[in-house]
Amino acid sequence: MFAVVRTGGKQYRVAAGDKIAVEKLAGEAGETITLDDVLLAGEGDTVADASKVTVSAEIIAQAKSEKVVVFKKRRRHNYRRKAGHRQQMTLLRITDVGTGAKKAPAKKAAAPKKEAAPKADAKPATEKKAAPAKKPAAKKAPAKKAAPKTAAAEKKPAAKKAPAKKAPAKKAAPKADDTK
After folding, report:
1. Where are the alpha helices (H) located in 28-180, listed in sequence order?
2. 3-state class of 101 per DSSP?
3. Could you tell me if 2 and 43 are in contact, meaning their C-beta atoms sit under 8 angstroms apart?
4. Are 7 and 94 in contact (CB under 8 A)?
């Protein structure tokens, strides 16, 4: 059986026993994770219901991909910049592609997102307490800033003057003819 899963903004066609390199996922080598975002599943030419299919994978290693060289150049300006980048990646071995009945207790790949959500809920409670103190200060600040801007706007046109007219170029005096 095969499945098409999405992780790290990319899609991968996987089957049991495949090894793939994906964008970095949380976890240590040896841990088992479940890839929940299954887009398509099937066997041979038949397509199965993707919502009932789960993909289990084992983390082989956390590694870096090959180096990508970033070279910037602007012609005729003596501008050259060279930098490199190695993307963090996770090597996975697909252990099982099947229906939800075969689901074993495993660590989900989406677990960090769930942990981040409660933290976001906790922040608005503190922001609500601090918000009334900040609002009056915010109202005063724009009023103070608005006055200098209008004054500066009035000064700018006054500062611009028409360029001074140049005196007309003096013509050379005609030479006296000594040949007469």
Report:
1. 111-159
2. helix
3. yes
4. no
pLDDT, one tens digit per residue, over 35-64 is 989 999 998 888 888 888 999 999 999 999
Collapse the DSSP code of 77 into the 3-class scheme (helix H, G, I; strand E, B; otherwise coil) and give the result: coil
Could you tell me what percent of the chain has a pLDDT over 70? 63
Q: Give whole-number Cα distances, 141 to 7, 65, 138, 175, in Å.
A: 45, 49, 5, 73
pLDDT for residue 25 is more than 50: yes
Taking the C-alpha atoms of residue 65 and residue 20, their distance in angstroms, rounded to an integer, is: 12
Where in the chain are the domains? 2-70+81-117
DSSP 50: G
Helices vs. strands in the chain: H and E counts, helices first: 1, 11
Strand partners of residue 160 = none
